[in-house]
Amino acid sequence: MKTIKTYAEFWPYYLREHAQPATRGWHYVGTGLALALLIVLIATQNWLLIPLVFVCGYFFAWVSHGLIEKNKPATFTYPLWSLGSDFKMLFHFLTGTIGRELEKAGVKPAPQAE
To answer: What is the CA radius of gyration of the chain?
Structure first.
């Protein structure tokens, strides 16, 4: 794989690495839990929760890559862009625009269950 030099190149790559809806779902769970814990951490100033924020944020994502996508998480090669993209992907999911982003990145829609 060639080295990605810009975030504009990375974002479509990131989405293609998250082609399966279940992978994205696990990412949403992990990112959502990490955000919730971060809010609790700030509200309570219980700094011992810091490791748990990272565990929640990454555990679900990494497991989904191993079990569903069967690829290596982008975090290992592009840690900051990957972290930002987790939040960007969650934002697009929550605003109903993830389908458009996936289409632009060349990710085919999942077949509908009958």
So the answer is: 15
Q: In the chain, what are the domain boundaries? A: 10-104
Nearest C-alpha neighbor of 90 from the set 51, 48, 60: 60
Cβ–Cβ < 8 Å for 74, 82: yes
pLDDT band at 2 (very low <50, low <70, confident <90, very high): confident
Among all chains, which residue has been given the structure tokens 């100033």?
Answer: 45
pTM above 0.90, yes or no: no
70 half-sphere exposure, CB direction, 13 A CA radius: 0
- Residue whose tokens read 């975030």: 7
> What residues have CB less than 8 Å from 49, skipping those under 6 apart?
37, 40, 41
